[in-house]
Write a structure and sequence with these properties.
With about 625 residues, the chain is an alpha+beta fold. The chain has 4 domains: about 90-195, Rieske [2Fe-2S] iron-sulphur domain (Rieske Iron-sulfur Protein), CATH 2.102.10; about 215-320 and about 470-540, FAD/NAD(P)-binding domain, CATH 3.50.50; about 330-350 and about 370-465, FAD/NAD(P)-binding domain (3-Layer(bba) Sandwich), CATH 3.50.50.60; about 555-625, Enolase-like, domain 1. The protein contains 13 helices and 44 strands. The strands form 11 sheets. It has a 9-stranded antiparallel β-sheet. A 6-stranded mixed β-sheet has the order 20-19-18-24-37-36. β2 and β3 (about 40-45) form a beta hairpin. It is globular, with a radius of gyration of 28 Å. The protein starts with 11 loop residues before the first helix and ends with a helix.
């Protein structure tokens, strides 16, 4: 909670230095003349009680601020710690009727910081102005029903509490106190709060003397990390154990295909200190080898057997590879984690081609200059890689099953535009043949051979031919699974008694499809799964309620997609696909199942909110407006 403004009671010898420091930092000047005790042009009376009004010359709004102290104030920052501060500022952002129209928001400057001011249903609120995921300006997002949705990737924040309610991202927004005084809208906060755009929600510490339960999380991705934090946020004081086969802390996996030089450390979602501070146990380089849901035990690769009260399965997928002759040659890669980066660092520094098979994307990026690259698979990841390599490699060839990439997801018109964009950058496509073997010399890849007799030179080959669920350890359990191996859950993310699942391996009911069960491998979905599963592990009764949202970036342009369409019979396009400025509606009958956008604006965020609230127009209504 934030401290409320109080009357100032001070001695000049104590208050003077504090005010002097404040004025220097924020470059304020006085509105009113004061006597005695000069402070950068500010003089303060030595009377026992006084409120000092200040304004900033360079900013017309906010118009004034007040500085208050009673010695030391203690503020709960929402980060599990308290900050002692001797300052509090009040900022007048304008008249109640003039600041904002109802249902709008804007970013306001406050000292050296900023805040997002919101007016909805006649009430004002103020929170952090940047999305906690990648820092998008929330003022350009979409405001609806007490939430602001990020325009870039769809994360949602409560505009009154600042809490993150949909994802991606882990952190909430800082919240500022707003009061109406003499018909003026006043924001109150401590100066340091305006310089941060992230807030970690308060979490409890482990205390097994009052809660002896053990919750095990199998997996170390976005779903696992969000679930672990949610357990502590919701008051769970038992043990939280996270198990991951990777050597790293949970990291931002979607970045791997977009920033190939990124390291696991630079992508980590939380630090080890954070996990220790919040009593989240992390076991790296460890796999679950068996689960007995009747005895409630998990057997680990190191021989340990863990007893659990509740378990979350969030193991994600493992990349598939082609089983064809020559697949054991060097320089054939899978895009997975950056765990091999350190092993091949010496090759990067010396500009030598590594002999390590299937290395991380970091190593691949270092080998590309002047090389012939073949990418097998025209998925979003494969095409993002092509866009990264196009201006570096001697040649880039993409191999796919469909003559038009993404046609089954984005439709033929948008898929053709993306293919044309790649071809304009020199990328070649092979869509009428399948790879039949890899050819090599002295153990290293030299070419990819196809079943139609053609041969493409290749120094590097990256396989992006899909993923399989990492659920082999469940074979002897009675946990329900699909034929593919995904874990079947209900709308509470529960598979069976004491067992929950989240992320890429969860086959879950999607509300927008009238609870039809689907498997969706989106980063945003994994976070929402983790949140919902954790709350229900604690005995909650919360249904999974979200609109899927994903994005792809190619050649500096982004496509944003919300909703979910197994299939569609029409694509309604508002705008120009050729100019890469459009909103596309994917219709099945008269129902819009998904929306894809390209170009500036918040159209995808707006569409996601309309779907979430059941307000999306019908296909016939959209056709009438085109």
């Amino acid at each position: 909670m934030f401290c409320k403004a109080v009357k100032v009671v001070f001695r000049p010898d104590v208050f003077g230095p504090l005010l002097r420091q404040f004025v220097r930092k924020y470059n304020f000047h006085t509105k009113l003349p004061y006597r005695n005790l000069p402070v950068m042009g500010v003089t303060v009376s030595s009377s026992r009680e006084k409120k000092v009004f200040l304004s900033r010359k360079s900013v017309p709004q906010p118009s004034f601020a007040s500085f208050s102290t009673t010695g030391t104030l203690t503020t709960d920052t929402g980060e599990g710690t308290s900050v002692e501060s001797s300052t509090m500022i009040e900022v007048n952002v304008g008249q109640y009727d003039d600041c904002l129209q109802d249902g709008t928001m804007r970013t306001i400057d406050i000292g050296e910081g900023k805040a997002l001011l919101v007016r909805e249903n006649g009430e004002y609120s103020a929170v952090g102005h940047k999305c906690t995921h990648y820092g998008a300006p929330l003022s350009t997002g979409h405001l609806s029903n007490g939430r602001v949705r990020c325009p870039w990737h769809g994360a949602c924040f409560n505009v009154k509490t600042g809490d993150i309610e949909d994802f991606p991202g882990l952190d909430s927004l800082p919240k500022f106190e707003v009061v109406i005084k003499n018909d003026n809208v006043i924001i109150r906060a401590h100066p340091e709060q305006f310089t941060s755009h992230k807030r970690v929600k308060t979490m409890v510490k482990e205390d097994t003397s009052c809660d002896k339960r053990v919750f095990v999380i199998i997996g170390g991705g976005g779903a696992a990390m969000k679930a672990a934090e949610t357990l502590r946020e919701e008051g769970f004081r038992g043990r939280v154990i996270m198990i991951t086969k990777e050597a790293h802390l949970p990291y931002d996996r979607p970045i791997l295909s977009k920033k190939l030089a990124a390291t696991a450390d630079s992508l980590k979602l939380r630090s080890m200190e954070f996990l220790k501070d919040h009593d989240i146990e992390l076991m790296t380089k460890t796999e679950a080898t068996a689960l007995d849901n009747n005895q409630k035990t998990v057997t680990l690769s190191n021989g340990t057997v863990l007893n659990y009260d509740s378990v979350l399965i969030a193991t994600g997928g493992k990349p598939r590879s082609l089983s064809i002759p020559g697949s054991d040659l060097e320089n054939i890669f899978l895009l997975r984690s950056p765990e091999d980066a350190n092993q091949i660092g010496v090759y990067i520094k010396s500009n030598l081609l590594s002999s390590v098979k299937r290395n991380s994307p970091l190593s691949v990026a270092s080998f590309v200059p002047g090389k012939n690259v073949v990418i097998i698979g025209t998925s979003f990841i494969g095409m993002e890689l092509a866009s990264n390599f196009a201006d570096k490699a001697a040649s880039v060839t993409c191999v796919g099953r469909s003559s038009i990439p993404f046609a089954n997801v984005l439709g033929e018109k948008i898929g053709a535009m993306l293919k044309k964009t790649h071809e304009s950058k020199g990328v070649k496509f092979i869509t009428d043949a399948a790879a039949s073997s890899f050819k090599g010399d002295r153990g290293k890849l030299t070419a990819v051979c196809f079943n139609n007799g053609t041969e493409v030179p290749a120094d590097i080959c990256i396989q992006g031919v899909g993923v399989s669920p990492s659920t082999d350890f469940l074979k002897k359990s009675s946990v329900p699974q699909t034929s593919r191996g995904d874990v079947i859950v209900d709308k509470y993310m529960k598979a069976c008694e004491g067992v929950f699942a989240a992320g890429d391996i969860a086959h879950f009911p999607l509300k927008m499809l009238d609870w039809e069960k689907v498997t969706i491998g989106h980063w945003q979905i994994s976070h929402k799964h983790g949140l919902t599963a954790a709350r229900n592990m604690l005995g909650g009764n919360e249904e999974i309620d979200t609109i899927p949202f994903f994005w792809t970036s190619q050649y500096g342009k982004s496509i944003r997609y919300c909703g979910h369409a197994h299939s569609f019979d029409d694509v309604l396009i508002d705008g120009s696909v050729d100019e890469q400025k459009f909103t596309a509606y994917f219709a099945k009958g008269d129902k819009i199942l998904a929306v894809a956008t390209m170009g500036p604006g918040n159209a995808a965020a707006k569409a996601a909110d309309e779907m979430f609230e059941g307000k999306m127009r019908s296909a016939s209504e959209i056709r009438a407006g085109l």
